[in-house]
Design brief:
The protein contains 13 helices and no strands. The chain is an all-alpha fold. It has one domain. It holds the Pfam family EamA. Keywords: Membrane, Transmembrane, Transmembrane helix.
Amino acid sequence: MISKGRASVAVLGAAVLFGTSGTSKVLLVPDAMPITVASVRLVVGAVGLVLFVRWLGHVDQFMALLRRPIIWVMGAAVAGYQGLFFIALERTGIAVGTLVCLGSAPLLAGLLGWFMREGAPGWLWAMVTAIAVAGLSLLTLGNAQTPDVIGVLAALGAAASYAMYTVFGARLARSGFDSSAVMAAPFAIAAVLLLPFLFSDGAWWWSADGLVLAIWLGLAATTGAYILFGQGLRVLQPGHIATLTLAEPVVATMLGVVVLEERLTSTGWVGCLLVILALALLGAMENHRTRAKAMA
């Protein structure tokens, strides 16, 4: 079984790939509707995940998972995350929507994981998460528009959806199912649920830039990212996984500064450093626990 340290690095790798989504869209197909981009991403990503599961020889597990009601709940949560997150961004702005969603996701995942008896995250995790959320707040400060109640509720709904498929995925992975199959099954369901939106914005994905975006978002930022994400499901607390993915907005911000020539205030830089510090502390905490367990 993979160590907690390596699992943490894998989840961080997934967060890095997640963080490339916004910049790649702006560079390649800036006018595409977000919900259409989400649909294309899920369809291509789900195909990639299913093919990867077939390559591993776990098609039987994939089919067995599709017969479990919990997988359909996870699939609805994956689709719900996409839809609710985009509603939140539209009504509250990118800064507030991202802050509310990603900031509350670790807390909700930790509480749901504790309720589902996946283990209590612990006070150290709470402290690290608080530092990371404070950093995320500083990162988004000054770029936020006044939010409305519906937008904030949508962001919280997206965070709850994220928590659900993370916690339920961890439970299934720890019960003996391959983590890639655990990711592939709900994403295949979510892709079908969002399929009606595939043509809602025209067939931009047939253009050269659209095809590159579809391949990158689908195969790299979804298939590859969730293969890495799945590595953490068996050994990390769901709350810890959600905290590690707070690296996503930092990566997105850095790409915006470097690639899109966006400006970041001094407050924003402090926020980035706080998130990085929190993630480093969480990684060190997991490595310490791994060594302590090995010596016991």
